[in-house]
Amino acid sequence: MSRPVIPPRVLRRAVLSGLGGTLVAVGVAACARAAADTPPSAEADAIPVLATEVRVGDAARTIAATGTTAGLEEVPLAFKIGGIVASVDARSGDRVAAGRVLASLQRTEIGAQVANADEAVAKAARDLARVEQLHRDSVATLEQLQDARTALAVARNGGTIARFNADHAVIRAPGGGIVLERRAEPGQVVEAGMPVLVLRRAGSGMIVRAALTDRDAVRIATGDPATVRLDALPGRTFEGRVLRRGAAADRATGAYTVEIALGADADALPSGLVAQVILAPRIAAAPRAATPVIPIEALVDADGDSAAVFVVRPDGRSVQRRVVRLLDVAEALKDARIPVADGVRAGERVVVGNTVRLTDGARVTLTAAAAPAVADTPQWRTTP
Q1: What share of the chain has pLDDT > 90, as a percent?
Q2: What are the Cα distances from residue 131, in Å, to 127, 151, 152, 174, 255?
Q3: pLDDT given for residue 258 in this prediction
Q4: CA atoms within 13 Å, Cβ hemisphere of 375
């Protein structure tokens, strides 16, 4: 006689970790409740499952973060003075050579300023000549002579300023590179210092900027290795190293910015690609000697700091349901493994696949495909 089966109830709870640490709840799956006339005994009733061995925790954990690609040198180009844009001769994606004119302002106003400065110099020179003659005739005083000389020097300085501003009414490429953004159009009025174009300098290299929590940031040091995967290029992996870490947290988010320098194979990447970063800090996390760790996928009926797991009995043919006490749940989200205070021992095997059908004492058969070891479980990605 076949046994009646009640459809499984699947429970998934998000992990909540606040600054006060008031509640942490981890939910992966809930076991089904089935009423049976007699316990299964035939091999055909065995439930296929995946299992992995409980390992001792490793204090040196990786750190997962999300960031975006950028050029190491991305230069906003602007006019030194305000005015009306006369021309913009580059667009996003254009490759430009050093010294190329990229944009210019209308020169009516700046041209008049240069002309006024030239006239002021000429007048000051004439005034000085008259005062010098009068001083030789003992008509003008020494003070008047000195004032005239000062006036000429001031007028010449004004001319220098006017010509400098005129020279910077044109934007030239400071080096070869690629135009990332075009932010102004001809006829637009721009203020002094307002970026008109953004240029990524060729050969400067690519970086990934990611945000870390303070708990992770203090473990990061210059030179730490990193692995970068891009959502836009699945299957490709880029290696990098930490270039620098922000010295202060962002006031809005409280996160610290870390820059990861990529190798030359990333130089052709566009800026702004979303990147998943796995950092391997050389500064270890707080040690937890001889603490068992299990994959987070093994947890069922999790609530707060307790959960249940199904442990494979030594004969490998049945499972036992046990309650375990969890440690550092929020921290464990970053690498998909969680330390436990009690309930399982290193060397035992816990079920990580098909737990929804299991009950205490259920007969199982281990599938040929072994579950990944704890150290090889996928990263649980987090964004600060």
Answers
A1: 57
A2: 6, 12, 12, 46, 67
A3: 95
A4: 7
